[in-house]
Amino acid sequence: MKNQEPLLVESSSPVENVFVDKKAVDKLTEGLLSHYLPDLQNSKRALQELTQNQLVLLDTLDQEVTKFRECNTLLDLNSLFTEAKVYHNKLVNIRKEMIMLHEKTTKLKKRAMKLQQQKQKEALEKEQQREKELERERQLIAKPAKRT
Question: Is the dihedral of CA 113, 119, 124, 125 positive or negative?
Fold first, then answer.
């Protein structure tokens, strides 16, 4: 019995030495492997393919997320440009209003200057009229006749 090895079996019963033929073990192992190995290799290939497909899907998903972020960025840019346009229009309106107010103040200053000049003219005319009246009164005042 040259190809037999002692095999220790674990159980609750007392340990017995069992002799197994090595060729039989090899043939059983080979048969077991030949029976299950192709299925296991097919399963391994399928799992590798699934893993590869998952990586491709993750890459695609990452690209789509990037596209959505860029789209949101574009929407943010569009809203910023819209807001900038609104503020630009407000500034244009303020500028128009300032120009209008400047024109009104210029007209009011000119009018105030004309009124001031007119008042000065009237005051001068009044003063001249008063002087004429005083001169006339002086002339009307009886003068003593000169005796010769």
Answer: positive
DSSP 8-state secondary structure symbol assigned to residue 147: P
20 close to 3: Cβ distance less than 8 angstroms = no
Q: 38 φ, ψ to 5°?
A: -60, -40
- pLDDT score at 1: 45
Residue the block writes with tokens 């910023």: 80
SS3 5: strand
Condensed to tens digits (0 to 9), the pLDDT of residues 8-34 reads: 555 556 557 778 789 999 999 999 999
- Read off the pLDDT of residues 60-116 as tens digits, 9 standing for 90 and up: 999 999 998 888 888 888 899 999 999 999 999 999 999 999 999 999 999 999 999
Strands, E assignment, the chain: 4-8, 17-21
Whole-angstrom Cα distance, residue 21 to residue 2? Answer: 9
User: What is the Cα–Cα distance from 41 to 33, expressed in whole angstroms?
Assistant: 11
Q: Are 3 and 27 in contact (CB under 8 A)?
A: no
Residue 17 neighbours by CB under 8 Å, 6+ apart: 6, 7, 8
**Would you say how long the chain is, in residues?**
148
